[in-house]
Structure formats: C-alpha cells, structure tokens
Design a protein that fits this description.
By secondary structure, this protein is an alpha+beta fold. It contains eleven helices and four strands.
Amino acid sequence: MNGLRIVACVNAPSPWSLAARALFDHKQLTYHLGEQFIADDNHALTLWTGQNSAPVVAFRSSSEQEKIATTAETIVLLAERLEPNRALIPLDPQQRAWMFGLLQALAGEDGFGWNRRFMSLSVVDIEFLPDNIRKMALKYDYNDALAAVAEQRVAQILGLFSETLRQQHERGSAFLVGDALSALDLYFAIFIGIMYRPLADEALPIPSDMRAGYEVPSAILDAAAKPILYAHRDRIFQQYLTPFMAY
C-alpha cells in the first residue's frame, strides 16, 4: 500500500500503540490499520520491518521511498512532518529537547513503560511464564537483576514528571512542556492511564489479567506519584483523547 499505515497491537491496550495512533488522530490524518498480536511471531510483520513488535508506522510517498518508524521519537517526528499545522512538537529548541528527553524517559528503553513491564512480569517467576510470554520477556532483556531495580527506576520517573508538572503549574502552564499541547502530553496520559493505577474500564477497557499486573500495590511508587499526575492524566483524556480507545 501507499500512504500512511499503522501496525498496532490488538486484543490488549498497548500504550505504545495507542499513543502512536493518538498522534495521527489528533492531526486528523487517515491511515490503514494493521494488526500485531502480543507474544506472537507475527511473521509477516517481521518480514516487512525486521521486527515483530508494534507499533510500526509506515508512510510511502512513492515506489522508491518509504519511511518506517518504530520508536516513539521517530513516530512523533513523522507525524509532525506529515501534518505540521496541528503541531505537537515545540518550536523552541530547548523545549523541543526537553520534550524528547521526557518522551524517552516515558516510552523508551529503560523508561517508565519498559520498567513497568518488567515489574508486571516479575509477579510470576520467569520460568513459570507461558512460553510465548517468556520469549517476549527475554526479547526485552528481562532478567531478575533488572526486575529488582525496575521499581526504583519507575519511582524516579514518576517523581520527574510530578516535579515537571509542579514547575509548569507554577509558571502558569497546563502542559508538560511549553504552553501548548505536545506529543508528550498524549503519551503521558495513555502510559499512566494504563500502566500505573489504570483508568476504569469505562474510560479504557483493560483485560483483567493485564490490569492485575499494573494494580499491584507499591508504597515506593505511591510516594513518588503526586496527585498532580492523575489530574493531568484525566484532563488530557477528557480534552484531547476519546473516552473509549479501541484496540
């Protein structure tokens, strides 16, 4: 196919997939949607992109030129290039750098989502996980040593976002960076809404086994996450994200 295509996770609300789609929905760009299944081989996807994970965002403008983006940073950049008028990247270079740094801390390797996934997997000994889930865990370099420090890493990132929002509110801004909605706000609301104190099913349906993994109590995380996090999450969902996000 030509044009814009997004391969997204199905049967579970993957924050990476939903956040990628939210960018293009906000920019009112149409796209063809393809399916990726968690912990499956996804052979066709691997043959096309070299990986079996989602999301994958592809844009082909000609038979000779196709852009394939698979990380939050490259997906945000592609979305901005395709529709710059509904901007989601700050123009100020310092704010731009700060936004991409926080985006990596949220959605990148060793970030919030990465380590929350480790925490969820560590609830059950890796040797007792189903083969497909164990294979997926090892793909992301899961091991007991990394799982043991995941909680502290997540607490650091929650503290970082709590302090960022406090500073922004002090200067009169209702957003994480600058004075306008950015891609970071959309990613933040979705990642926090799924992976830490998940939203109610009325706002975002989550399978019970997945929800249980992200509802395990943690005094360390509760101490790091200030009420301002939930207030920002809820406001972004209400104002900029649909009340029901399909997957």
